[in-house]
Amino acid sequence: MTGWTYYVSAVVAAVGVVQAVFLCLILRSEGSRAFGANRWMMLFIAAVALNLIEDVAEPLVSADMGGLLDLFFSPINFAIAPAVYLYFLEISGNPSRRPWGHFILLFVVFNLTAWVVTHNGGGTVWGGNIRSRNLLMPFAGVRSLSR
In whole angstroms, what separates CA 68 from the centre of its chain? Predict the structure, then answer.
């Protein structure tokens, strides 16, 4: 995306973030009785807002940092489905006794992403162009390990 369409999408994303903050404040003010269900809706809205923040921040950073933004914000997507599921469980009157169990995949993906960013096959992520390195499949270019 180049030109004016890039700026239009960034403005739309920024407006979406402002709306998300406003909606979370409204849900928070509902009171303690509604907070049981609203906390999961607020988590869902926060996850979507973080995806929009990535869209706003992308044109403001370099290509190297853009790759790191992708690696940081990608695991946030794994919080969306459990938040919606837990919200519907809560409003149906059957709240989950162990809601953290629904977020195990989020924690695993976030930790794997952090490991990939910090280790990068013995190299440094901050020193060069992150998009030119194959972070997720470091041995993709190797023909054979045994000669």
Answer: 12
